[in-house]
From TrEMBL:
PROSITE patterns in UniProt: PROKAR_LIPOPROTEIN
UniProt organism field: Nocardioides jejuensis
Protein name, as recorded: Uncharacterized protein
Alphabetical UniProt keywords: Signal
The UniProt record lists the keyword Signal: yes
Domain of life: Bacteria
First and last residue of the signal peptide: 1-17
Lineage: Bacteria, Bacillati, Actinomycetota, Actinomycetes, Propionibacteriales
Length: 149
């Protein structure tokens, strides 16, 4: 059962694959508006949000012990993983990515929100290998390790 608890932590990390972005070493060449972040700023801020979420959920998962039962895992998913993830998704949605990332960010946000809805409908879905796989890959491909891990 410890593996199930770890899987929940992973689900939370995967759900934030919506962080969006690409190579953090690349410079944004367009002149951003005051509220639009550069590529580097966006990637740094979004990935930092994911890292903080991952750490928070990991810490909270320590209370589950070595062999949590299904009820404890369900409660952890509904009371900790989902609210924490949704809060961070809202913060990421509030970031304004540069134009070059907007389509990718929008696609990932759409994907991650669809996956969250599936977990809300059935918490066990979050433990399946297919949960958040696409969103996770999108974040990793775009250079957001905390969001895609």
């Amino acid at each position: 059962m410890k593996k199930l608890a770890v899987a929940l932590v992973a689900v939370s990390a995967l759900s934030l694959a919506a962080c969006g972005g690409s190579d953090t070493s690349a410079k944004d060449t367009a002149s951003p508006s005051p509220s639009t972040l550069t590529k580097a700023e966006y990637l740094k801020q979004a990935d930092a949000l994911c890292a903080g979420m991952n750490a928070s959920i990991d810490k909270a998962s320590q209370t589950l012990g070595d062999s949590p039962d299904a009820a404890a895992l369900e409660a952890f998913t509904n009371d900790t993983v989902l609210p924490t993830t949704k809060k961070v998704i809202s913060k990421i949605e509030a970031l304004t990515p540069p134009a070059e990332l907007k389509a990718q960010v929008d696609a990932m946000l759409t994907e991650v929100n669809a996956q969250i809805a599936k977990v809300e409908a059935d918490w066990k879905y979050g433990m399946t290998p297919k949960a958040f796989t696409k969103a996770n890959k999108m974040a990793m491909d775009l250079g957001l390790p905390a969001c895609g891990s």
